[in-house]
Design brief:
The structure holds three protein chains of three kinds. By secondary structure, chain A is of the alpha+beta class. Chain A has two domains: 96 residues, NADH-quinone oxidoreductase subunit E (Arc Repressor Mutant, subunit A, Orthogonal Bundle); 95 residues, Glutaredoxin. Chain A contains nine helices and four strands, in the order ααααβαβββαααα. Chain B is an alpha/beta fold. Chain B is globular, with a radius of gyration of 28 Å. In chain B, strand 32 and strand 33 form a beta hairpin. Chain C has 17 helices and eight strands. In chain C, helix 3 packs across helix 6 and helix 14 runs antiparallel to helix 17. Chain C folds into three domains: 210 residues, Rossmann fold (3-Layer(aba) Sandwich); 83 residues, Ubiquitin-like (UB roll), CATH 3.10.20.600; 89 residues, de novo design (two linked rop proteins) (Up-down Bundle), CATH 1.20.1440. By secondary structure, chain C is α/β, with parallel strands linked by helices. Chain C is globular, with a radius of gyration of 22 Å. In chain C, strands 3-2-1-4 form a four-stranded parallel sheet, with helices on both faces. In chain C, strands 6-5-8-7 form a four-stranded mixed sheet, with helices on one face.
Chain lengths: 247, 819, 440
């Protein structure tokens, strides 16, 4: 009921959740909710959905989620503030996240992050004035064999250096094509990415490589050396010598 | 979730012997029921394991880790490799447990946790409200160490944060035990506070614009094991060790919750929920906790007043003078005096009025029902309620498979019963049905099912359940099913008759839950026109004789008494010579305007009152009486359970109603024989309940509610827990949490009158108009629900209308979007 | 000598490996076809017989987990795939799902059939957008091909699969926290019992398995238990990904039988980067106590690694050479645990908050000997006292690093600062042209 009439809130800007937007999103919400045996399961996708609309999760966005699920605003707020992928305030079209967990940090992530901070004149979590780039450091993103790693809108930019990272953010700000190392042929915006996370496909799953460099290191070596998994039809007789016995 | 099939039906009420199992704690063996938590088992041995998140009435979470113990043997010969949280482990046969008393591992674990808890806790105990009664402070002394290794930077926050007007949060004191959030979510069903953020940044919070306006929010202050949550009214007011505590019983509703009244130098500083597992467990509502300043308002009467014959103004008088005047006036009017007492009296005081009316005034014109009432209700009370022992109690409500509500919104009208319904729903799958105009908040929180009922149609709906809702009738046939009816049904012809009939044809037990604390006691004490004490019918000669013997009088008046409406009508007709009015607000009566006019025609009015009111304004003699905290007595709660309490404050000169009445009677040369409350209680006990035939129950046929035309609607309404009541006066923090005035109406009705959801609606009754925000909801067309007692929407005073009447609806004339 | 056994990765060098056609052309979904001709219980038995142990870190026998589902519970059963790969150093499931999502989908279908579930969820961390796309596409294509949905392959088996993206919380890798998250709550671990097998998702019987565990199932069904046990050791059967990262010449995914050693793997990967030597490494992510050179020959199976004082975990072999400051490395990990601690229990929430400050101070050279002992005491009060394994995990790097490198902690405060030049650790430090690393 009446989610968009702000009553004495301090927000000066007009909410993006107009009646029209709410009606449209309510359709999306319905589809999301229908995927789950219980509606509440839809909360995380719904928060991605409102983030896709607004670029961040605002009180209005949370109110929308609360209304869809018939839960309190506090319940939504608690969830929205628990997970780090929900932005609390407006950010850039491109979220540049430099991994500074131990391995990436040691491999150069710290240097990449500090050079980007200096280059963009931003502190962690801040956005360039042109609204293009939000810089932050992120935790391990499961690409350690590609370290140091930078994520842009949660696409992989592997094996980075300060120079490549600076080039990339410059290109992003200039609107040039920037291509993830393992991802689609071009970057989508933060809002578009959030919509994919909400469960609405953008038809780009087929783009990009299936695997790159380090992912294939073992396979290539095996091919080179003719190593294969055992043949089920010709299993070796019980092996226990091997690596185990030998200390 | 864990409810088993109901098909067994014959689950015998006889207590099944519990499975006892043997556990060894710190070398002591004991046998405890299966399912007992370790921490509780240890308590039975007097072993106190320190704890914070643990609370016996909340689900275990094992979050704070303070209660870690060592378990060298789980009962299967194997030990647990790590210390275990005793708050979450149930005992197993043969289990061996070593607490901090006997295990170095447990002791080290507990000291370590305590050190962790204290690293971010401020050292502000000297200025903290909790200091002196703080579980963290106490257990840091008993189970912590004097020194900390922490030399780093503590979390700090600006303080305090208002979670509501009443509850404040000092975030840096919080130890994230989640007792408060779990209480809100589990017990109250109001998940308006949550732990926001993550990890060390985690903190309790509300969503912006949605304050913690739960009826039960005060319990979180009480169970907070640190000083993180405080009540605005009590903050910085006193130190717990300076307070005197007196066990008390809440005077705000018929629940009879145990409380503790803390006072200092003759003044109540705070009230806490008492622990009574059979009644309120350990909870109370915010009204019970925080509404006590009404007794210390500036309009509190402290000296008798008498009307000056010449000036016609009330003048201070001495007690003897005032008592003398009252006695003289009443003696002159003897036989033609009405006695109107509100529903807030103690059992003993009500008895004093009942006896005074019969013995001193020779009349049965006495009624404690300052609300809608009817002959049907009087017959119902005589047949089904008065003098009955406890039958349906809180536990029976909690354990019932199904509860049907009619004319009762427990969350608003009987908060402790609401909590039991919720508990039954959560723990046992209790199913709630409610005859009401719409699904109110409380019903949704008990996951109840609405039986949509137009106001005034409750009787017909109950009678036709067999056809329209056979599943409910079938559910009512289950062992333990309960029907709970509220006092509002008195205003609906045929409804109580139908409720009795449903109970009789299904076997479901029926219980009556009035709102006010003194209602049930007044019924049992005979402060009704048709009843003498113990449920004895006035109309029954042997009953009268029994009471007359006990009272040492020759006979009692035998003529049928007049009820409140009839007394007012007689007064209005100029037929009464005098009135005795006590603890009654004219605005509580069905027709306050008529009552005001009637009072103007009564030659002599004696008022026994706490504070100045529009009754005292019209009275000829005003006699101040003691507030609940200033006297002892008994409330009889809706169960029929006697809830005695002692006097918390000794206020010289504060006399209970009973003592004032005795004094008047003495002056009239009538001896009530009631020296004090204890004497009255003894006399009631000796009288005992009526053993003779009960009058037959009511037999009234429902009437068809009117069908309003376009632009008109039937009014559905009840009093919300918090509102305009005078017993909430002087507590602005509490008032800030009350639910705001609003109107519920259907989409069709809203369209018909041209009102938008969230827009303003004008509702007009005989006396006037209120303009309130409209909320479009699922409710019958041409029915509108309004709170009866909200600020800006007091339906009796502002509209002059009551439930079931027709009111007019309109969009505001000026601009539909304003307000 | 142990050799590599590319199984899940065997098709990764096909550009169409992630498509349904690509997958089917290398025998994909044959195992599902076979499984649907078998009795569900016999598949559970087969997986038990194969000795497959959970690949998400804890190593609990997968078949046994399936067998725990109560027979008489009337509620629906759920299969939930834990694809919330977030443990620092762990990077196997993400490339697997990117390159070969169908082997996971096929595994889901077989596992769901085996445990008689008709609703599965794949809970994938949200921070891997393209993986989310690939998974969704794979699931959609499988529906299209009749491999999911109503009446799978005409065998009367119904299965719905929902890909659910997380939103950034390491703790959701803990299976009960994952379930809370999947139910739309904060991801905080649940009190156990009841275990998920009895009351998991929506309080119904639920199996939660790691991606690699489920992806291993089609191979077992296709090739038999004996085939599986012909790899690995007696108690740690089969194969798995060994993910080498850090100061190693050729980092990446090496799929090999359990029991292989780091020495063997390093040989395959070209050794520690040229000109440097091994200083310390994690056998299975940051939550497993670190190892040093002395552990190069420890067989990487559950028992041997455990006996040597660590845990096999997720076989995330993070290799650090002598240029790496162990205090810095550990401090960063603890900052991670503090950031990711869900806040539910005291020791993890407060202990990590505290250790961050102590480690910071030590790294800056402002610590004392007492701080080192204090760290050990904090760990003593945290290890085994926390609600879930996250808290325990945080103590691993601290305690093990002090055990092996106490002097390095001392060096920091004796020298009044970090004795290491961090730039020497970077990947570009030894590169001939300094074009890349020219900024400092």
């Amino acid at each position: 009921m009446s989610e968009n009439n702000d009553n004495g809130t301090t927000e000066t800007e007009q909410s993006v959740f107009t009646d029209e937007v709410v009606t449209r999103l309510a359709q999306d919400a319905k589809e999301i909710i229908s995927r789950y045996p219980k509606p509440r399961s839809a909360l995380l996708p719904l928060l991605h959905l409102v983030q896709a609309e607004e670029g961040h999760v605002s009180k209005d966005g949370m109110r929308f989620c609360a209304d869809q699920l018939d839960i309190t605003l506090a319940e939504v707020n608690a969830v929205a503030t628990f997970y780090t992928m929900y932005r609390r305030r407006p950010g850039g079209d491109y979220q540049v996240g430099v991994c500074t967990n131990t391995l990436c940090a040691v491999m150069g992530g710290d240097e990449i992050f500090s050079s980007l901070k200096e280059h963009l004149d931003l502190a962690n979590g801040e956005t360039t004035e042109d609204g293009k780039v939000t810089l932050e450091h992120v935790e391990c993103n499961a690409a350690c064999d590609f370290a140091p790693v930078v994520m842009v809108n949660w696409e992989f930019f592997d094996d980075q250096t300060p120079a490549t990272a600076k080039q990339m953010v410059d290109d992003l700000r200039l609107g040039k094509d920037v291509v993830p190392t393992r991802g689609p042929k071009s970057l989508c915006t933060w809002k578009q990415a959030s919509r994919v996370l909400a469960g609405f496909d953008d038809g780009r799953a087929g783009e990009g490589v299936q695997a790159a460099g380090p992912s294939l290191a073992g396979l290539n070596l095996a091919r080179e050396r003719g190593w294969e998994a055992p043949d089920p039809n010709n299993l070796p007789t019980p092996i226990d010598q091997g690596e185990e016995g030998a200390k | 979730m864990t409810v088993t099939s109901n098909s067994s039906g014959g689950s015998s009420p006889a207590p099944v012997p519990e499975d006892l199992i043997t556990v060894t704690i710190d070398g002591f063996q004991l046998r405890v029921p299966k399912g007992t938590l370790l921490i509780r088992a240890a308590e039975l041995l007097g072993i106190q394991i320190p704890r914070f998140c643990d609370h016996p009435l909340l689900d275990p979470v094992a979050a704070c880790r303070q209660c870690l113990v060592e378990i060298p043997d789980m009962g299967n010969g194997r030990g647990m490799p790590k210390p275990q949280p005793s708050c979450a482990i149930t005992v197993m046969e043969g289990m061996v447990v070593n607490t901090q008393l006997t295990s170095a591992v447990a002791d080290k674990a507990q000291r370590g946790i305590m050190e962790f808890l204290l690293i971010n806790h401020p050292l502000d105990c000297p200025v903290c409200d909790k200091g002196g009664e703080c579980p963290l402070q106490n257990q840091a002394m008993s189970n912590g160490q004097g020194e900390t290794q922490f030399v780093d930077v503590k979390r700090t926050f600006p303080k305090p944060v208002s979670l509501s007007t009443e509850v404040l949060l000092d975030r840096e004191r919080c130890i994230q035990c989640t007792r408060c959030t779990r209480f809100a979510a589990e017990i109250a069903g109001d998940p308006l506070i949550e732990l926001m953020e993550r990890g060390a940044q985690e903190q309790i919070g509300i969503a912006e614009g949605e304050p913690f306006d739960s009826y039960f929010s005060g319990n979180t202050v009480q169970i907070c094991p640190v000083g993180a949550l405080t009540g605005a009214a009590y903050r910085f007011r006193s130190r717990p060790f300076d307070l005197v505590s007196t066990p008390s019983i809440c005077e705000h509703c018929a629940g009879g919750c145990a409380q503790r009244t803390d006072h200092r130098r003759g003044k109540v500083t705070r009230r806490l929920a008492g622990d009574d597992p059979q009644v309120n467990e350990e909870w109370n509502c915010d009204k019970g906790r925080w509404a006590f300043t009404y007794a210390t308002q500036s309009d509190r009467l402290s000296r008798p007043l008498v009307r000056d014959e010449d000036s016609r103004a009330l003048e201070f008088a001495s007690w003897p003078e005032a008592i003398g005047m009252a006695a003289q006036g009443l003696a002159a009017a003897r036989g033609n005096v009405g006695v109107l007492v509100g529903g807030r009296l103690t059992y003993e005081d009500a008895y004093a009025y009942a006896k005074f009316a019969r013995v001193a005034l020779n009349t049965n014109d006495v009624d404690a029902r300052a609300r809608e009432h009817s002959d049907e209700e009087a017959a119902f009370l005589a047949a089904r309620v008065a003098g009955r022992p406890v039958d349906v109690d809180f536990t029976a409500v909690e354990k019932a498979p199904t509860v049907l509500l009619a004319g009762l919104d427990p969350e608003d009208e009987s908060a402790s019963a609401f909590l039991r319904l919720r508990k039954g729903m959560r723990k046992r799958g209790l199913k709630v049905y409610s005859l009401a105009s719409h699904s109110a908040l409380g019903l949704t929180k008990t996951k109840g099912t609405l039986v949509p009922t137009v106001p005034g149609d409750e009787g017909r709906t109950l009678n036709s359940l067999d056809v329209e809702h056979p599943e409910i009738v079938e559910a009512m046939g289950q062992e333990g099913a309960v029907i709970l009816v509220g006092e509002r049904l008195a205003a609906v012809p045929g409804a109580l008759t139908a409720a009795v009939a449903l109970s009789e044809r299904t076997g479901a037990r029926l219980s009556w839950i009035p709102r006010r604390a003194g209602e049930r006691g007044a019924v049992d004490a005979g402060a009704l026109p048709n009843l003498l004490p113990g449920g004895r019918p006035v109309a029954d000669a042997s009953a009268r004789a029994e009471v007359a013997r006990a009272w040492n009088v020759g006979s009692l008046p035998s003529g049928p008494g007049r009820d409140t409406d009839a007394i007012i009508a007689a007064a209005a007709a100029g037929e009464l010579d005098a009135l005795v009015i006590a603890g009654l607000e004219l605005d509580d009566l069905p027709d306050p305007e008529a009552a005001r006019a009637a009072l103007a025609r009564v030659p002599f009015i004696v008022s026994l009152e706490l504070r100045a009111s529009d009754v005292t304004d019209r009275a000829d003699v005003v006699l101040p009486v003691a507030a609940v905290a200033e006297k002892s007595g008994t409330f009889v709660n809706w169960e029929g359970r006697h809830r005695p309490f002692g006097e918390a404050l000794k206020v010289p000169g504060a006399l209970s109603d009973l003592r004032v009445l005795s004094a008047i009677a003495n002056e009239m040369d009538v001896h009530l024989g009631l020296p004090d409350a204890a004497g009255a209680y003894r006399e009631l006990l000796e009288l005992g309940p009526w053993a003779g035939d009960r009058p037959v129950g009511p037999a009234v046929r429902p009437v068809v509610p009117p069908e309003p035309g376009p632009g008109r609607a039937l009014l559905s309404t009840w009093k919300q827990l918090l509102g305009t009541g005078r017993m909430e006066d002087g507590e602005p923090y509490l008032a800030g949490t009350a639910r705001k005035a609003r109107a519920y109406l259907s989409k069709t009705t809203a369209d018909e009158v041209g009102v938008l959801d969230g827009g303003s609606l004008r509702v007009t009754g005989p006396l006037g108009t209120v303009t309130v925000p409209a909320v479009v909801t699922d409710i019958a067309d041409r029915v509108v629900w309004l709170p009866a007692n909200a600020h800006g929407c007091d339906i009796r005073r502002d509209l002059g209308a009551t439930a079931g009447q027709t009111v007019e609806l309109a969009a505001p004339t000026t601009n539909g979007r304003q307000q | 000598m142990t050799t590599l056994t590319p199984i899940l990765s065997k098709n990764w060098d096909r550009p169409d490996s992630f498509t349904i056609d690509g997958y089917q052309s290398t025998g994909g979904y044959d195992a599902l076809r076979k499984a649907l001709t078998m009795e569900p219980d016999s598949i559970v038995d087969l997986v038990k017989e194969a000795g497959l142990r959970g690949r998400g870190g804890a190593g609990f026998p997968t078949g046994m987990k399936w067998g725990f589902l109560p027979k008489d519970n009337p509620n629906p059963r759920y299969l939930v795939v834990n694809a919330d790969e977030s443990e620092p150093g762990t990077c196997k499931d993400i490339p697997l799902m990117l390159a070969n999502p169908h082997v996971l989908v096929e595994g889901v279908a077989i596992a769901a059939y085996a445990i008689k579930s008709s609703q599965a969820f794949i809970y994938v961390r949200g921070e891997v957008l393209h993986v989310v796309r690939r998974l969704r596409q794979a699931v959609a294509d499988a529906y299209e091909a009749g491999l999911l949905g109503k009446d799978v392959l005409g065998k009367g088996f119904d299965l719905d699969v929902v890909v659910h993206a997380g939103a950034g919380a390491y703790i959701c890798g803990e299976e009960t926290a994952l379930l809370d998250s999947l139910e739309g709550y904060k991801g905080q671990p649940r009190l156990k019992p009841p275990f998920p097998a009895v009351a998991g998702l929506y309080a119904s019987p639920t199996v939660v398995n790691n991606v690699e565990s489920i992806a291993s199932v089609p191979g077992i069904v296709a090739n038999g238990a004996e085939w599986f046990t012909s790899m690995g050791t007696e108690k740690s059967a089969g194969f798995g990904f060994f993910s080498l990262s850090g100061h190693v010449t050729n980092p990446g995914q090496y799929e090999a039988p359990l029991g292989i050693t780091l020495r063997e793997l390093l040989d395959m990967a070209g050794g520690v980067r040229a000109g440097h030597e091994l200083k310390f490494w994690t056998p299975g992510g940051s939550s497993t106590p670190i190892f040093t050179e002395e552990h190069l020959d420890v067989p990487l199976d559950f028992e041997s690694v455990g006996a040597a004082g660590s845990m096999l975990g997720t076989r995330a072999l993070q290799i650090f050479d002598e240029t790496t400051c162990v205090v810095r490395a550990v401090g960063r990990w603890i900052a991670f645990y503090a950031h990711e601690s869900c806040g539910k229990c005291t020791p993890c929430r407060e202990g990590n908050y505290w250790m961050v400050q102590v480690l910071d101070r030590l790294e800056r050279g402002e610590g004392t000997e007492a701080d080192i002992d204090k760290l050990l005491d904090i760990c003593d009060n945290l290890l085994g006292r926390a609600f879930c394994a996250l808290g325990d995990g945080a103590t691993s790097p601290v305690m093990s690093s002090i055990k092996y490198f106490r002097q390095e902690y001392v060096d920091h405060f004796e020298k009044g600062g970090c004795p290491f030049d961090h730039s020497r650790s970077t990947i570009w430090a030894d590169r001939p042209t300094s074009a890349a690393g020219g900024n400092r």
